[in-house]
Amino acid sequence: MDPSVRLLYIGQAGDSLADIPRNSGDIDEVYSVSAGKLRRYHGEGWRQLLDIETMSLNVRDMFRVVKGYLQAYRLLKRLEPDVVFVKGGFVGVPVGLAAAKLHIPYITHDSDAIPGLANRLIARWATLHAVALPKEVYAYPADKTLTVGVPVHANYEAVTPEAQVAYAVEIGLGAYQKIILVTGGGLGAQRLNDAVILSAPKLLEAFPDLAIVHSVGRNNETAANEHYRNILSEEQQSRVVVMGYIEDMQRYSGAATIVVTRAGATALAEFAIQQKTCIVVPNPYLTGGHQTKNADYLASQGAIEVVLEGALAYDLPPTITKLLKDSSRCRDLAKTLGKFAIPDAARQLAMVLLEQAKS
Predict the structure, then answer these.
(1) 108 closest CA partner among 356, 286, 341, 285
(2) Would you say residue 309 lies in a domain?
(3) Strands (E), the chain
(4) Is 185 among the domain residues?
(5) 226 in a domain, yes or no?
(6) Which CATH number covers residue 334?
(7) Same domain, yes or no, for 333 and 353?
C-alpha cells in the first residue's frame, strides 16, 4: 500500500523459525532480542507451584525478559520506528515495554477470543488493540479496540472444485481423488503425528484413491519417514508425502479434501477463506485453553469436526473415514466455515498501521 515503508522485524533470540522472516522479500531488516516464557499449563492450577523444574525455568526467564527489555530499548532508540506492531508472543513483552518507555506508539493484535498473556501485560500503554472477533468479546477499553479479523497471506482465497484439482496437480498428487492434509504447525504436534501415522495403513487400504500430506514439524521429518516405512507397504508409501515445514501451505491445503489441524486462529482463518473441510484437534495444554475455546465455538456453529487430543487414537480414524465417505457433509462444513472468513483482514490492519505511522 505504501512502497516507501520500511518493515523491520524483531524476533526472539534462538527462534528455530527465524529464517522465515529473514528470507522474506517483504521485510527489510531482521533483529532479535532475548525473551522469556511464563510457563502456565491449562488445568494445572496451583499444582504448578510444586513443580521445581517449571518454577526454576520461570525464574531464569525473568532475567531473560529484563535482558530483552534492555536490548529492545537500545534497538528501538536507534531504529526510531514510527509505529510498532505486536502480534503477541513472548518477545512482545520486552519490545512493548521498551516502546512504551520511549513513547513509541504500538498496536497489539489478538487472533483468539482470549488475549495472550504477552498482550495483556503490555495492554495498558498500547495505542490501539486490533482484534479478530467483535470487540465486545474482549476486556480492552472499547474506544481503543478495533475488529479487523485475522490477517493471512494474500495467496489464500476461496477454492473451487476446479481449483482444488489444479492445486493437486501442482503438488504432484493429481492422480488421487482424495487428499488429506495434516498439519500441527511449524514445529509439529507429536501426539497428532503419532495418531495419523498409526491410522495411515487402514485409511490407505480402505481408500485406494487417497493420498496423505503430513506436515510433521522441522525436527520430526526423519523420524516420521522412518515410522511410515516401518508400517506401510511400498505402494502405500508412494501415497504419503512427509514434509517438515510447508512454505506454500495454500497450495497443499487448497488441494486437500480434508484438513486435519490444530485450532490456532491463523490456521483456521486461512482454511475458512479457502472454505476447507476441517477436523480440528485443539491443543488442550495451552494457557487459558484458547485453542479449545476456538474449536468449541466453531463446532457449535457447525463449521468443523472436533477430535479431542485424549481420544485421538480412537476418534480420528472414524472421523476421517466418515467424512471421506460423505461428500455432502464435507461441503456443508466447508461452506459454514467459510462464513467466518474476513479475507481483507490484512489490508484493514495495514491501513491502521499506516494511519498511525503517518500521524
Answers:
(1) 356
(2) yes
(3) 8-12, 29-33, 84-86, 106-110, 128-131, 145-147, 178-183, 210-215, 240-243, 258-261, 278-280, 305-306
(4) yes
(5) yes
(6) 3.40.50.2000
(7) no
Question: Phi and psi dihedrals of 262, rounded to 5?
Answer: -70, 175
Instruction: Give the per-residue pLDDT at 39.
Output: 47
Q: How far is CA 22 from the centre of its chain?
A: 19
pLDDT in tens, 305-327: 999 999 999 999 999 999 999 99
Q: Which residues of 205-216 are buried (b: 16+ CB within 10 A; e: fewer)?
A: eebeebbbbbbb
Beta bridge partners of 258: 180
180 and 250: one domain? yes
Domain count, the chain: 2
Q: Are residues 30 and 128 in the same domain?
A: yes
Exposed/middle/buried for residue 102 (C-beta within 10 Å: 0-12, 13-18, 19+): middle
Angle at 186 between CA 90 and CA 287, to 5 degrees: 40
Domain range for 328: 161-338
Instruction: At 264, list the grid cell.
Output: 490456532
Instruction: Tell me: do 203 and 296 sit in the same domain.
Output: yes
pLDDT grade, residue 104 (50/70/90)?
Answer: very high
- Cell 482470549 locates to 114
Query: For residues 175 and 241, what is the distance between their CA atoms, to the nearest angstrom?
Result: 14
pTM reported for the whole predicted model: 0.77
Rounded to whole angstroms, the Cα distance separating 18 from 186 reads 11
